[in-house]
Write a structure and sequence with these properties.
The two termini are about 35 Å apart. This protein folds into two domains: about 270 residues, Rossmann fold (3-Layer(aba) Sandwich); about 80 residues, formyl-coa transferase, domain 3 (2-Layer Sandwich). The protein is built from 19 helices and eleven strands. It is of the alpha/beta class and about 400 residues long. The strands form three sheets. A six-stranded parallel sheet has the order 3-2-1-4-5-6, with helices on both faces. A three-stranded antiparallel sheet has the order 7-8-9, covered by helices on one side. Strand 2, helix 3 and strand 3 form a beta-alpha-beta unit.
Length: about 400
């Protein structure tokens, strides 16, 4: 399978999170992913976070989702730059071209689907926008969380709306785009035809709201409920002697077993026998449960709950997450060939044959223009004198 995906080349004019995470996923499959950045105005995320490598263009935030890629620079505001792009599309050759610049810049930069598909008719062209290809409204993840309703679902019932701890509109759109690219590759294999894919981040965001949107048919408003659940009880965070535990009881059988655990027997009441009764007295029920959980050490309570097959977990910090025996074996790694720095990366959603073959490692996130010589001189065959002239003019 790695040989199959290794045949594909992705050229991505990317910045921020939504496209870099998408192409990071494609790199995990073994595809050749080449970031395309403006030499004067590169991805702003390069300058975000701590300067862990003593390189202003390689700050810590950038390192999280850019391993496994190459990077070239190209100024598409110039005719020469656009001509080089067209050569890249043909001569690499490029299978998938991605961009998340504003649509008003497509034609100006010569990256619109109509232009690039004439150069390579079977090209898969991907444009990611916040609000659609007809809109030039800028969009960042929290703006989409606000407009798409996610913030209204996040936070305490009597508190303000809150952003989520991860950028779901960004990364959710990345996952949805990944699926569309796979469909387009299948279509091309079967028909020889390319595709235009327009991904709209707001649509992707709202697509996750399955229950909240359906409930509006019945005038049921789904909104913030903190650590509890609007439709199941008891589901919440509870204090223990030494920390916190999350318990999620999802059916009446689990409740029947729960009230057999020492300390909880007094909650075996007729009014709590079914979920509807527990939901009706949720706040009071949770207070009664916490009076008991505070008498237990977390590990002991987890042991008792596991014996009854009741879903539960301690609330792990990020350091504890990466030390989890299950998760530790899934983490990816990368090493900087210049400084020797080794990084641990979040695991893939599933292991690919490419990752297995490469011992779960990826190449280090690329420095700005790191692969200019490899691509322009090695692939396009540009002579040294011309290469230096292009650098001096700021075209690459």
């Amino acid at each position: 399978m790695e040989d199959l995906f290794g045949r594909f080349t992705v050229l991505s004019m990317e910045q921020a999170t939504v496209l870099p995470y998408l192409t990071y996923r494609l790199a995990m499959d073994g595809m050749r992913v080449i970031r395309l950045e403006n030499p004067q105005y590169p991805d702003p995320n390069r300058r975000v976070g701590d300067n862990v490598l003593n390189d202003e263009m390689m700050r810590s935030y950038f390192l999280a989702i850019n391993a496994g890629k190459k990077c070239i620079t190209l100024n598409l505001a110039t005719p020469e730059g656009q001509e080089l792009l067209y050569r890249l599309i043909k001569e690499l050759p490029v299978d998938v071209f991605c961009t998340n610049v504003l649509p008003k810049n497509y034609k100006k930069l010569g990256i619109d689907y109509e232009t690039l598909s004439q150069i390579k008719p079977d090209l898969i062209w991907v444009g990611v926008t916040g609000f659609g290809p007809e809109s030039n409204e800028p969009a960042y993840d929290p703006i989409l969380q606000a407009r798409g309703g996610l913030m209204d679902l996040n936070g305490d019932p009597d508190g303000p709306p809150m952003v989520m701890g991860i950028p779901l509109p960004d990364m959710g759109t990345s996952e949805h785009t990944y699926g569309q690219i796979m469909k387009a590759l299948l279509k091309r294999q079967l028909t020889g035809e390319g595709s235009r894919i327009d991904m709209v981040m707001l649509q992707s965001t709202v697509s996750w709201l399955t229950v909240p949107i359906t409930m509006t048919n019945f005038n049921i408003i789904v909104t913030r409920h903190g650590n509890t659940h609007q439709f199941f009880a008891p589901v919440s965070v509870y204090k223990t002697k030494d920390s916190y535990i999350y318990i999620a009881i999802g059916n009446d059988r689990q409740w029947k077993d729960f009230v057999k655990i020492p300390g909880f027997e007094h909650l075996n009441k007729p009014e709590y026998q079914y979920n509807a009764g527990r939901i009706a007295d949720k706040d009071n029920l949770n207070k009664q449960i916490e009076e008991v959980t505070k008498k237990y050490d977390t590990d002991e309570l987890i042991r008792l709950l596991n014996e009854k097959t009741i879903p539960c977990s301690r609330i792990n910090t990020m350091k504890e997450v990466i030390e989890d025996p299950l998760i530790k074996g899934w983490l990816l790694r990368t090493k900087d060939h210049i400084t020797g720095m080794e990084l641990v990366l979040a695991p893939p959603p599933y292991f690919t044959s490419f990752l297995e073959k490469n011992n779960y490692t990826l190449s280090f996130p690329p420095r700005l223009g790191e692969h200019n010589e490899e691509i322009y001189r090695g692939v396009l065959g540009i002579k040294e004198e011309e290469f230096n002239r292009l650098k001096e003019k700021g075209i690459i």
